[in-house]
Design a protein that fits this description.
Strand order of the largest sheet: 1-2-3-4-5-6-7-8
Largest sheet: 8 strands, antiparallel
CATH class of the largest domain: Alpha Beta
CATH topology of the largest domain: Nuclear Transport Factor 2, Chain: A
Strand content: 35-45%
Helix content: 25-40%
Order of helices and strands: HHEEEEHEEEE
Structural class: alpha+beta
CATH architecture of the largest domain: Roll
Shape: elongated
Number of strands: 8
Mean pLDDT: 84
Number of domains: 2
Length: 152
Amino acid sequence: MKKLIAILTFAAVLTSSAAFAFDPFDGATIDNKKVMESFNKEFVGAADVSWYHTADKYVAKFTMKSSKVTAHFDKEGNLLATSRYITDTELPLNVITRMMKKYPDQKIHSIVEYDSQGSTTYVITLESDTHWTILKAESNGNLTRMKKLEKA
């Protein structure tokens, strides 16, 4: 129980510090023309756009075809990475089959797809009656267990 409280406290501190590290903008535009041009070219049809920034990075959170998407840009307008929540039907077949063989007693709670520099990885949270398992999956089907958390 103490371990779970420590983990949750650490996550809360990390989340709150991340919230203060970014400066949110009101509206769907920012003052960096290169970033806006790149965003509008890459994500035609994006809706509900919110912008955040640090000294050297711009982050857009938006909806695209009913998916929540996050895109990271540098100051020059280069797209660095994207992430989005997906469903199990959107996972590559080799990932889902290996995962089901290795963790048959767990159900999928959430999946986040990360794309950076042409490489796609997935962070999958599985749930059983007693614990949570967080996996990293590569497009080729390789699975790595990142964490296993006991339920309280």
